[in-house]
Amino acid sequence: MKTCCLLYAAAGAVLLGGCLPKPVSTLVDQTSFTLREKEPADEMFRSIDELSREEAVRIALKNNPTYLEAGQSITAARMRLYQALGGYSPVISAATAVGDQLYDSSGAPELESGNAFYSYTMVQASFLIFDGLAREFQVEAARHSLAGEEALQENARRLLTQAVSNAFDDILLAAAQRKIADSDFEFQSKMLEDSRLREKAGTANRSDVLNFAGKRNRAATRQVTASYQHEVGRYVLAVLLGYPDGTLPEGLKFTQEKPDEAALLPVDAALDAALANRPDLKNFREQLRVSEYQLYSRYSAFSPRISAFANYSYSSNSTRNSGNNPNGFANFYVEGNSFNYGAMAELTIFNGLIRYNRLRESRAQLAIMQYKGAEAWLRIVADVRNAHANVQHNRELAALNRENRDIMREQRDLVAKSYLAGEDEITRLNEAQNNFVAAEEEYVQSLVNLSKARAQLAAAVGEVHSIQ
User: 429 and which of 2, 133, 136, 419 could share a cystine (Cβ 3.0–4.6 Å)?
Assistant: First the structure.
């Protein structure tokens, strides 16, 4: 079977002038990770030490298989359009045949046995003059189908950009959480060392030492958890970028970003932009046009088809008898040429209501597409409103959490000084440190949530990333 496929592929390459597509990736055929053949995508981080959000999106748009698949769908749709345009071309075909007929005259003694060699060659051409505008409707349907596939590629870019941005934010969040855990670990270690010294001096008891030892271990567990989340985030981003290794290089740094303080569009302006720009809604509009033209083409079945034709044929026949032909049957050779042309009209009068029921089916399909488009329109309005409210909500939370973090830091520092001076209880210090750590985590979480909300709003509005 494999040999037959190779032969067909070779024959196709000869007939098409070597235009068979080259495989863009061999990953699916590789059965070993450690022994797999390296691909160009394996080298994408060779010259990159620090990865920014913009660079991550650019890499994803060049390597993500789902997005690249959408590009190939455009090529397929374009070829379907070319096929539809081919309906305006005449059809020219040729046929030839050679053969030898053997006959036995044992049942007719008066005849001699012999054979007849014949050859036949024909060239014919036909041209469809009128088919009830079916070709025109097919071309328009293919044209809008192509536009729909282009919109779907834009939609794939929109969703990929959002996914990469969210994965990048998850990595930054894990890094920030690790930094908070490191700071807490450092603080608890410092207090543990101080409590041990005070225990030796008799100014602190054993419970204080155990308290800070346990708090330090709690900080260490948060370090481990944050490191794990950072590692998982690198796996997710690597897949989105199409990196075959499945995880980003260990030494790769991620660009830290300042909080986004850009002005927020009014919700009405965001809705207008979304309904004008969302590529998935554009695709529904194009698919609606496709359904309309498919409906129109059903009416063409009730129209006559008119075509012109011409053909030329050449034939030869050579008959040879064995023996002396006593009854006068001689060997003979005949050849001839013929050429004919004309026009033909045909009309289906009745076929069991097939045409009528196909027309009703297309009307129902058009109605289905209209309802789906209305559903998509409503969903987009809800997406924009939810994303807009999410940005406003997280902007307010980020501002409050930043202020609260500063308050908790100042309070923790004051309580720590009071505790070291013997003026405050250890429980008060524990509470102040816990509040500060929680405030820090809430602040960095709100910043990441704000960044994700911005990406959500950009995707909801239909902003398509322009990086090539």
Answer: 419
Residue 341 pairs in a beta bridge with 310
pLDDT number for residue 120:
86
Is the separation of the CB atoms in 373 and 284 below 8 Å? yes
pLDDT for res 18: 44
Q: State yes or no: pLDDT of 213 exceeds 60.
A: yes
Question: Which residues share a beta bridge with 184?
Answer: none
Give this prediction's pTM: 0.85
What is the predicted pLDDT for the residue at 466? 47
Chain Cα centroid distance, residue 451 = 24
Q: How far is CA 324 from the centre of its chain?
A: 79
Please give the share of the chain, as a percent, with pLDDT higher than 70.
88
Copy the structure tokens of residue 440. 């820090």
Q: Beta strands 253-254 and 50-51: pairing type?
A: parallel
